[in-house]
Amino acid sequence: MKKHPPSGAAARARALRRNMTEAEIRVWQMLRAHRTNGYKFRRQVPIGRYIADFVCHEARLIVEIDGGQHDPRSHQEIDRNRFLRSQGYRILRFWNNEVLVNPDSVYEMIVNELAASPPPRPPLSRGRGIVRMHRQNIKGQVES
Fold this sequence. Notes:
The chain is an alpha+beta fold and 144 residues long. The protein is built from six helices and four strands. The protein has helices at 9-18, 22-34, 75-86, 96-101, 103-115, 129-143; strands at residues 42-47, 50-56, 61-66, 90-95. Strands 1-2-3-4 form a four-stranded mixed β-sheet, sandwiched between helices. The longest helix has 15 residues, at 129-143. The N and C termini lie far apart (55 Å).
């Protein structure tokens, strides 16, 4: 299976971001406002040929908000979950009504799942300072 999104996935993800359900909006407000323990979520993210509702790449966590159109036993959902897990992601699923009726519980479950993850790694430096310093140390050692 392709790991990179097919053409048109970015446009479809943009359209989904503009037309989020009430439950998705509430979860996005939670995740966006809290950025728990340094974890950052993105919404409607293409991964392979699928689009995940909310993704934290650092924690390898996907949060899915499902409406009545989702059947977790369907072949499509099983294939989707299998692919996302094969990419190293864990998946948390919540029904729309779960988010709308008990948002605090949903947030707590997300926080607990993040707590089970290793902390996010700081971004690597884009410069070559460490390599240069190492080369200088080697040159200095050789010359002395």
